[in-house]
From TrEMBL, chain A:
Compartments where found: Cell membrane
Keyword Transferase annotated: yes
Pfam families (alphabetical): PTS_EIIC
Domain PTS EIIC type-2: 27-350
One record GO biological process: phosphoenolpyruvate-dependent sugar phosphotransferase system
This protein's encoding gene: mtlA
EC number: 2.7.1.-
Spans through the membrane: 35-57, 63-82, 94-124, 144-165, 256-277, 284-307, 327-349
Protein name: Mannitol-specific PTS transporter subunit IIC
UniProt keyword Cell division, yes or no: no
UniProtKB/TrEMBL annotation, chain B:
A GO BP entry: phosphoenolpyruvate-dependent sugar phosphotransferase system
UniProt KW Repeat keyword: no
PROSITE patterns: PTS_EIIB_TYPE_2
Key words of the record: Kinase, Phosphoprotein, Phosphotransferase system, Sugar transport, Transferase, Transport
Protein's name in the database: PTS lactose transporter subunit IIB
Function text: The phosphoenolpyruvate-dependent sugar phosphotransferase system (sugar PTS), a major carbohydrate active transport system, catalyzes the phosphorylation of incoming sugar substrates concomitantly with their translocation across the cell membrane. The enzyme II CmtAB PTS system is involved in D-mannitol transport.
GO CC entries: plasma membrane
The keyword Kinase belongs to this UniProt entry's keyword annotation: yes
Listed Pfam families: PTS_IIB
MF (Gene Ontology): kinase activity; protein-N(PI)-phosphohistidine-sugar phosphotransferase activity; protein-phosphocysteine-sugar phosphotransferase activity
Domain of life: Bacteria
Organism: Demequina lignilytica
Length: 377, 102
């Protein structure tokens, strides 16, 4: 299969999905867009946690005092600010942070989801107000109006956030947490891979990981010290297995590009690099699902988890955020996923019609003593 | 259908979903190649492509979004992140002043 064939094949796929695919991607982007710019703060929080909490590398009560306020205030406020900024620029960000503060104070648990709702919603209200008074403000009063509109609307919405949104979202978070606990206890969490892996290669990877797993996982990590939810989408294992299979058994013209892709994927954590290989041979999604499920199952059995979201999904991020003494479990989860994905991908590629045809032609050419059609040598 | 002359390209935008991962990687490899033509390479999220962009590179899975964000730009989709013919196409168009179309 040539590159242009692959291009037209996936182009046809895209047309079939029409605008729905793009709309889903865009909503996902809206969710992940609030989290991703702030991942650096999650990493700082994760490092401080890994080092200074009582079970950490270098326990230090004084420095561990950073952990609570960072997760209760800093991270939700950053998310609320960013969510507001997406909707209505810096003004939106400011009012988003104000209202998020109301939600934080009104809740008993860290308010990631609350921030993801309150930030953009508050900015939306301010945007409507700004639109309403546009052009009606007397010259010289702009600054007064600008500051007091944020102040007054922010105050009112913060009160709503404290009294209404906080308690409601606390309940929602509780239910979501119970749902996750149920899935974990019933050993059903591996089924998540059925949705996650196909969604990933449709470029919903950030949406799923940072829109869903990062907030839920951080919540769980705060209670139990670690979360397996961080290891569902971000596991570099399945992609590694698929790329390795491509390196040995994939279409000949693509093989040369794979080693570089493996390094970028596994060590650099940029998973997008393996999506095209799956989009070219869509049935390989089965290998990704099988790898992902085995990885999650390993994690469930071994009670694995990471202390903070590993982003990007590089093995280095995994090593950094593995709880002390749980390295064997983490590596097992990654490499079992890789091995299973590799084996399934191997069979799918081995029995691929086009690839068998390619192999046959090659063998025939060799026998006839003709130059290799690929290299021209 | 938007089109642009190679010599009119002063800036190439590489877009991905978050504008933080794959686009940064593609942009950094492309930047060295296009620097000698005085062409700047920037990376952005696909929903935030600047309005004055005239050439946008992005993965074909995101091309629909790129086109709706930047209707006036030539959107060149690529299939793989390394060594895709699309990168060569853009480079050649700039080097030889050929017309690029979406």
């Amino acid at each position: 299969m040539s590159l242009s064939d692959a291009q037209s094949a996936t182009a046809a796929n895209k047309n079939r999905e029409g605008g729905v695919g793009a709309a889903v991607q865009r909503f996902g982007r809206f969710l992940s867009g609030m989290i991703m710019p702030n991942i650096g703060a999650f990493v700082a929080w994760g490092l401080i946690t890994a080092f200074f909490i009582p079970t950490g590398w270098t326990p230090n009560e004084g420095l561990a005092a950073l952990v609570g306020p960072m997760i209760t205030y800093l991270l939700p406020l950053l998310i609320g600010y960013t969510g507001g900024k997406i909707v209505h620029g810096i003004r939106g960000g400011v009012i988003g942070a104000i209202v998020t503060m109301g939600v934080i104070v009104g809740a008993d648990v860290p308010m990631f989801m609350g921030a993801m709702i309150a930030g953009p919603a508050a900015a939306w209200v301010l945007k409507k107000f700004d639109k309403l008074i546009e052009g009606k403000v007397k010259a010289g009063f702009e600054m007064l109006i600008d500051n007091f509109s944020i102040g007054i609307i922010g105050m009112l919405l913060a009160i709503v956030g404290k009294l209404a949104i906080g308690p409601v979202v606390t309940k929602l978070v509780e239910w979501a947490g119970n749902g996750v606990d149920f899935l974990v206890d019933a050993h059903l969490l591996p089924l998540a891979s059925l949705i996650v892996e196909p969604a990933k290669v449709l470029f919903l990877n950030n949406a799923i990981n940072h829109g869903v797993f990062t907030p839920l996982g951080t919540q769980e990590a705060l209670e139990t010290g670690k979360s397996l939810l961080f290891m569902i989408e971000s596991n570099p294992g399945p992609g590694l297995g698929i790329l390795a299979a491509f390196m040995f058994f994939g279409p000949r013209m693509l093989r040369a590009s794979v080693p570089g892709a493996i390094i970028i994927h596994f060590f650099g954590g940029i998973h997008e690099i393996y999506f095209p290989y799956i989009l070219m041979k869509p049935k390989l999604i089965a290998a990704a699902i099988a790898g992902g499920m085995s990885g999650v199952l390993t994690g469930v059995i071994l009670d694995n988890g990471l202390v903070a979201p590993p982003s990007p999904g590089s093995i280095f991020a995994y090593i950094t955020f593995t709880p002390k003494g749980e390295y064997v479990g983490m590596f097992l989860q990654v490499f079992i996923a890789a091995a299973v994905a590799f084996v399934v991908a191997f069979f799918l590629l081995k029995f691929d019609k086009e690839l068998r045809q390619e192999a046959k032609e090659e063998a025939a050419a060799k026998e006839a003593g003709l130059p290799d059609p690929m290299t021209g040598a | 259908m938007p089109s642009v002359n190679g010599s009119d390209v002063k800036r190439v935008i590489v877009a991905c979903d978050a504008g933080m991962g794959s686009s940064v990687m593609v942009a950094s490899t492309l930047r060295t190649k296009l620097a000698k033509y005085g062409v700047e390479v920037k990376h952005t999220p696909v929903d935030e492509i600047p309005g004055d962009a005239n050439v946008v590179l992005c993965h074909q899975g995101l091309a629909a979004r790129a086109k709706s964000t930047a209707p006036g730009a030539v959107v060149v989709p690529f299939a793989i992140f390394m060594g895709d013919p699309a990168f060569t196409k853009v480079e050649n168009a700039i080097a030889n002043n050929q017309v690029l179309e979406s």
